Amino acid sequence: MRKFTKVENSWMMYDWANSAYSVIITTAVFPIFYKSVASSAGVSNADSTAYLGYAVAIATFILAMIGPILGSIADYEGLKKKFFFFFFAVGSLSTLSLAFVPEGNWIWLLIIYTITAVGFHGANIFYDAFLVDVTPANRMDNISARGFGLGYIGSAIPFIISIAIILLADSGVLPLSMTIATKLAFVITAIWWITFTIPMLKNVIQIHSVPRESSIIVGSFKRLGSTFKDIRKYRHVFLFLIAYFFYIDGVGTIISMSTAYGTDLGISATTLLIVLLVTQIVAAPFAVIYGRLSDKFTGKKMLYVGIGVYIIVCIYAFFMKTELDFWILAMLVATSQGGIQSLSRSYFAKLVPKEKSNEFFGFYNIFGKFASVMGPLLLGATTQITGSSSYGVFSLVLLFIVGGVILKFVPEQDAEVV
User: Fold this and answer.
1) Helix, strand or coil for residue 102?
2) Closest of 182, 204, 217, 192 to residue 91, by C-alpha
3) 94 neighbors 246 (Cβ within 8 angstroms)
4) What is the C-alpha separation between 370 and 249, in angstroms, rounded?
5) Is the dihedral of CA 68, 73, 77, 83 positive or negative?
6) What are the extents of the domains in the chain?
7) How far is CA 176 from CA 9, 167, 173, 217, in A?
8) Which of 172, 220, 233, 375 is packed most tightly, with the most Cβ within 10 A?
9) Each residue of 312-328: pLDDT tens digit?
10) Taking a C-beta distance cutoff of 8 angstroms, is the pair 21, 119 a contact?
11) What is the mean pLDDT of residues 300-322?
């Protein structure tokens, strides 16, 4: 494989930049901090877990509603980066504002967290769509997978710094309260995200687009209508999206709810942070391995490998009782979470017409986000009904099975739509 270009490296660097949010805000520090604040306010473990799931559902529902139309508008010449910048700014600045929420106010934590999620995932619509602008189809799997690999490595650095500050504050070495130490992690996340997004903003440009019209909004709705009218032409694209709808739901729910689940099992905050750090380190090479294996076995076969691993994860989680079990579960997730996400992104990018990439990645977003509404709601409702998080995680098995069955009908070859 030839050397990576400056544009490819700049695009991949955004995974390095925004993955700090994925770990510190979505998966690790924020959920633990929120659970602690909610518990101090008298909210039960089951209810606080459910409320976090509902917050995730609200954020993703908002994006699901606006994704396709924003994507369609951004397909016009010169607009993709402007939309990317807007959502990146919303996400990073609201993440910074988490540090200024009054102490003990768990409701405002959830509200601002919802805004950060809208910004983070909104920016990713346009970031993912830029894949068609930065590299040819035969390099997409490796570029996408390497981006995820860089993300895991990049996220580990601010995560280590944040953990060090929190643990040193907890032990009394640093003269900081645990609340202040945790809020510093939010500041670090925002600064890291902003700093390493600069190469993306500076070097990546929109190549594939549609000509501007006199009325951009009216034209966008017309193009959306045309896409639905010609849906048979894009049958394989939408079939893939339906499969993706189900299996990525389970992936996203496990990622966003893992620390809350671990807390409910009685695992300490310190142990959770260490497990998540090791997970990031292990996940980096596996994301790259998935990309390379896709060249040999096809992206579709490697997606099935990832789905199979996640089914095992859900079943194992149901019987999990000890800290060792949680470690085993985390390592299983580490082997496949980056691979299944990166190959989904690149497989889809090769299926869609390049000049309509934002519109189709808007659909990619809406299917993924609607799925992310269903998964947390399913987990939250099952947890509240049964009083056990184990049943909530186990219920996600159904999503992976349905997604895998539908994926069977998507073409084996990575063909582009023309």
Assistant:
1) coil
2) 192
3) no
4) 8
5) negative
6) 6-204+211-407
7) 38, 10, 9, 51
8) 375
9) 988 887 887 788 888 88
10) no
11) 87
Quote the CA–CA distance of 377 and 61 in Å, as a whole number: 12
Q: How far is 166 from 85, CA to CA, in rounded Å?
A: 31
pLDDT tens for each residue of 232-285: 677 888 889 889 888 887 887 776 666 666 777 778 877 877 887 788 788 888
Distance CA 157, CA 120 (A): 19
DSSP string, 182-238: HHHHHHHHHHHHHHTTHHHHHH----S-B---SSHHHHHHHHHHHHHHTGGGGHHHH
Residue entry with tokens 């009685």: 266
Structure tokens at 369: 């986000």
% of residues, the chain, pLDDT over 70: 86
Q: Pick the range with the lowest mean pLDDT from 219-228, 299-308, 316-325.
A: 219-228
Q: Give the residue from 208, 205, 229 showing the smallest Cα distance to 10.
A: 205
Residue that has been written with the tokens 């901090």 in this structure: 33
User: CA dist 346 to 66, 140, 195, 354, 362, Å?
Assistant: 23, 5, 26, 12, 15
> Cα separation of 143 and 139, whole Å?
6
Top-confidence residue, 175 or 277: 175
**With 0-12 CB in 10 A as exposed, 13-18 as middle and 19+ as buried, what is 229?**
exposed
- The CATH number that domain 6-204+211-407 falls under is 1.20.1250.20
Secondary structure of residue 123 in the 3-state scheme: helix
Cα of 63 vs its chain's centroid, Å: 13
Q: What span, in angstroms and rounded, lies between the C-alpha atoms of 53 and 62?
A: 15
Estimate to the nearest angstrom the gap between the alpha carbon of 377 and the chain centroid: 17
Instruction: Read off the tokens for 77.
Output: 């010449």
Rounded-to-integer distance, Cα 311 and Cα 250, Å = 9
Distance CA 175, CA 168 (A): 9
* Residue 31 contacts residue 389 (beta carbons within 8 Å): no
User: Which of 62-76, 90-104, 201-215, 395-409 is predicted with the least confidence, judged by mean pLDDT?
Assistant: 62-76
Q: What's the CA gap between 315 and 310, in Å, rounded?
A: 9
